[in-house]
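Re: [help] complex structure
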Amino acid sequence: MLQKLGERKTDKNQIPFSLIIVAFVLLILPLLIHNEYIIHIFVMVFFFAFLGSSWNIVSGFTGELSLGHAALVGIGGYVSTLLFINAGLTPWIGMIVGAIVTVIAGIIIGYPCFKLRGPFFTLTTIAFAELLRIYVSNTETGPFGIQLKGSMGLLVPLLGNAPHFFEFSSKIPYYYIMLMAMFVATWITFLIRKKRLGHYLLAIKSDPDAAQALGVNLTKYRLIAMIISSAFASFGGVFYAQYFRYINAARIFGLDLSIEIALIALIGGQGTILGPIFGALLLVPVGEYLSLKLGGSLPGSDLAIYGLIMMAVVLFMPRGINNIVVKVFNNVDNFLMRLWRLKPREILNKKGRSP
Amino acid sequence: MLVRLIPALIEGILLGGLYGIIAVGLNLIFGVLRVVNFAHGSMLMLSVFSYYFLWKIFGFDPFFSIIIVAPAMFVLGYFLQHILIRPLFVRERALVVEPTSVLMLTTGLMFFLDNLILAIFGPNYFSITTKISSSYFNLAGVAVPWPKIIAFFGGLFLIFLVTWLLNKTEIGKVIKATAQNRDAVAMCGIDVYKIYDLTFGMGVALVSIAGAFASQMFYVQPSIGTVFGVKSFLVIVLGGLGNILGSLIGGLVFGIVEALGSQVIASSASTMLSFLLFIIILFFRPQGLLMRRAERR
Amino acid sequence: MIILELKNLSKNFGGLKAVSNFNMVVEKKEIKGLIGPNGSGKTTIFNMIACYYPPTEGDILYEGKSILGLRPDIVCQMGIARTFQLTRPFSELSLIENIMVGAFATTSEEKEARRRAEEIYELLNFNASLNQNALDITTADRKKLELARALATGPKLLLLDEIMAGCNPQEKKELIDILLMLRKEKDITMIIVEHDIRAIISLCDKISVLDRGMKLVEDLPNVVANDQRVINVYLGEEYVAAKSK
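Output below.
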């Protein structure tokens, strides 16, 4: 995989060796660090990286910014939790049902939205998410007598350590589940990029008319991206519910969440494969730190600084941090290889590329 | 049932007028710069707080304070565009900017401003009480607060003033032209960026005037911006981009739908109706209610 | 065997009559030329054949069946491919990936698509390298890219809109040879819009001349080149009058 990746033309999609080392470190981290809070931070990093990847599949590749992704996350979370509370169904199966419902919702949302361009598209995604949020927040008992509990939210039954029910008393299983999910999402993103779907989506992003002239069914492929994205998003919702053991409409359907997800993917690097991971690694700890230091004393000041960071990134690093980070890792690679007296990557590549 | 409808209708019309005015400023910016200013609501919020403090400290009536706040906000808007947004245009070396960057920038601005005010003043609610704000007018047996009536007619006047400005003054025509074809305007030797700065300032000044009305109709608190911010977008899309009159009509539609809707369901959920309406309308007419669909060439 | 038939085709844009009552028949494996001054409606006709927008009046029969109202991507799947006069490379993809987008119309496997794309890349002798970003290439390469992408879809009918513009005589000769080879070996029918009269004459079996949306004449290349009306339309009546003095 490294060799094949080494042949790819865009450096930004190459996985540097040193990054593999980082991945390995992440795998064994819980064995080294026993601080619950730090583990929690990483869980949140993986969580947002995962959701960022799922957002990337639809918005990064098609170029239409969705700011309503929370709708998909929330549906997954609510469906699974409702099944858990009312039917005792384990979230492991509940998440499959949730995914199906979310995918259907994704198609219902996507179909009208994809008729629109630019800000119109964005606003419609916001409208859908807000619709859901307001509905659930204000509804005690929904259709078929389902107890939605309105703004009170849903409390996940506390079963202590119950792996069969996606509940663990320690944070570590959650850590690994989310880490794996993040890897899977990244891998799927990579596959999409490589295969026809990715080429078609990027063609649609660049020039929909020219793409159509080459036989690309615009709606079909946008919807496929939406389906994959929805399935992932719904898992995020289920995980959230099971991790925090509480879920409420204001948070899980909220515009704040949608913006956070979009931001992480955008700052990481829109349409890149590793972008969401970098974005999450930057923004989540910063957000947590700010919230910790300032959130208590001056509520809101942490988000104010968050806002400043956003503006700074747009003004000074518009393509996101992906390219810079990958360049750094490539340099580390070269340094390490020279250290072990192996040939630097450039020479390897030149040889690999000879006709 | 009908008896309850009339006050709701009046409420809806008056509220719609306010939505309309707030949307006009946004429409101007959106129509000319093609910039999605997510911080528009924050501008409203800032002006509302300004009116509050001018009233609290100096006892100025908000309607009077307009002559202080509006120019100040114009300057603020001018410089926000000049310092924060213009670099994006320049960087793209085009006269149109990539939507993602602007979206992120204005979202960051919104986060920053909303939370800055929140941090400074806390989530407390304030309210302005002046002689006008506490007096009522009897309209068909309904007691309507004076500020709402002044707001409505003041807003109407404002909208027609803006329309007149755009159509009859030289600078207005230039702005209109920029909205239609910025490249052609540039080729006429006009500094498009300066027009952008000016238009942005105007848009913000307009919303700050709306703030004078809003400050007497609602509580003064940091999140007043978010509610109106999102809705004003829905309004301009409904009414059609660049269509000033359309903002008014869109605002009225929204206001009436919400007011009537809150008779049937809880008022907070009547916003749902607005969103649903929005989605349905865009589905059948992606260009909004009052614009003709552009034919591909 | 007739592959394409345009019957009484008209297109109005508001008050502008871009194309009026245009008739044309294209035989299989024919190379048909479509010429006329700028604004005479050539690209509009291409757009209608490719179903980019519908005609105001008239019918388009492809392989005997009307294709009115179909989506552009369906029409492409049926075998009609077109290039754009103003090149439209996919900015998010590399050169080879651009061609692959076309190739994916024939296969869903990326290895196969890549193989096809590389074949076409070799055939057209691009200046730029495979992996170059599609925006950073010369105009001539951009035109070749339009052709390459359209070719990759495996078309039966190719609509070429000024692909030789911006090419030097050597490159033009290359393209002419390639097109003739494609007709011979891949059985591809072509309609070519071009301004270079010599190129058109050496390529085409028959030439249709458009003037302000209407067909002026259709005949063999040599006949058309010497037709007074055609010269009129391109160079103006005064020139013709001056020349004949």
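The interface with chain C takes residues 295-297 of chain B (CB under 8 Å).
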